Amino acid sequence: MGGTIWFGLLGPLEIRVAGAAVMVPARVRILLASLLCRANQTVGVDELADAVWSNQPPRAAVTTLRSHVLRLRRLLGEAAGRVETTGSGYRIGLDPHTELDATIFTARGESARAAARRDDWQTVSRSAAAALELWRGSPLSDVPSDPLHRDEVPGWLEARIELAELAACADLRLGRTTEAIRVLRRLAAEEPHREGVHALLIEALAAAGRRAEALAVYRRVRAALAADLGIEPGPQIAAVHQRVLGPGGAAPPRDTRGAPASAEPAEPARRPPPFPVTVLRQLPADLPTFTGRSAELGVLLDSATAPVGSPATVQVIAIEGMAGVGKTRLAVRAAHELARAGRFSQLQLYVNLRGFDPDHRPLDPSDVLDGLLRALGVDESRVPAGLDARAALFRDRLHGREALLLLDNAAGEPQVRPLVPAGPGCLVLVTSRRRLAGLEGASALPLDPLSPPEAVSLLAAAAGPDRVAAAQEAAERITRLCGRLPLALALAASRLRARPAWGLADLAEHLEHGGIRAIVAGDRSLCTAFDLSYRGLPEPARRFFRLLADHPGRDYTARSTAELAALEPASAREALESLVDENLLIQERAEQYRLHDLLHAFAVEAAAAHREAGGTALRVR
Length: 621
Description:
By secondary structure, the chain is α/β, with parallel strands linked by helices. 49% of the residues lie in helices and 10% in strands. The strands form 5 sheets. The chain has a 6-stranded parallel beta sheet with strand order 7-9-10-11-8-12, sandwiched between helices. Strands 1-2-3 form a 3-stranded antiparallel beta sheet, with no helix packed on it. Strand 16 and strand 17 form a beta hairpin.
């Protein structure tokens, strides 16, 4: 525990100043917990208000927050100066190494994982145990905030289970089989669908010579997965089961230290680990406001379990659609749903490929592979130099493992191909604004804007269900003005939360008069998102896109656009198809196209800006 001040999040909120416990009222506890979750960083007023009032702040939220901060400072006494006011919110300053249990827990967990990568199992055991000692119960159990429980607690719970698994693995490597079994039985009861825990328990029971119990564990987890989730066990636990069955149907006998019995017992450090040591869970946080997409989500969840008789190959799904349609939201939600169901429990890899990024060039796949290989435990000196060699080593490192790889914001097929593993236990989710028709073996999942009910539900989740229920007509108007795009709706809801005096009708008027440029919140805007797609086009395609703003009517054909652009119909059709491939144009039928309403508004803006900049006349006769 720290010297003069100590904060605890891994259980009921704990505050000690100079060794004395400090009791704080509920809303002040939420405020303090929100600051501690982002220790030494500014937390904005809007974010604090959402946490304190569970996404439904009152009109006087800013004033009330200020009074809560003053009260917190009084309660902290000599440590009041730790809570600072900044330009856009508040921050709490502390030493993360000695004064906050959550950051100490994370550091000790990283120490355990690093030790595992170098086969230092004594250090793994000490570091994991020291981390788990900080656990006092369910995190934030006395902090009544839905956003904090959704956004912060799941990560800590996941880390606790991971470290308990790692501690049990260390016990096995060090010959402490009985202790490993005790820990793993408790974990298996808590996590009936987590295959990594059950695989390790099967290994531990087999190492103790308790083969019948090990096989019984496999039968139970297989039955639970089938009954509850409708899936078969994954490759990891299936492989462990086969090893337990083994030649002659028995696991090798073990001595009291867990080593195979022989005249000269092998050193524990030289035995193969009972399960893959590298554990990576890199997924971004799931969004609590995610709604709809049930059909698309079902497709992604079903893809994690290949039907019997299907080819033994990696599953690749390309989630495609226009900017702002919610590709990343869907991919992240699906990945978390799979993880919560016990799939891909050891390897969840995430890379933002920056295919459309205002501040960075698209990532080179060779650099991506360098980072992935290092994360998977490959020493820097052993990472090969060439792209093909790195790709081959990456496939080798994932061979026989169950891994989920989320490649977000891909620029195109050449960037993605070297990053695809080969094993049937792997699932690759790719998101892109471009259609990835040339990505071999990939299934395309195109996304359209939300349906009207889904759009209203998303607005309710982001802006507050009571506000939407009280102004249903205005809510439907907002969703139409936002083109039923998740990004536009999220930005509009953020603007509404930043204007406590506004009602939904006020927001609708603001959007009506401001047009596409009114769909903005802070440094994020829909225009910027669209502009990244537009700027990625070659100049002839940009010119053709601008011409669509001058087209009479909203339906386009090769013949009508050919006349507008002074092109042959075949060339116009090629230009239209290229915009379809960029998800900047919707193909209604084989010879008919249209623009999404907001993309049409953007085309009008782009054409006007081009004229103002001295561009050539848009109509070419």
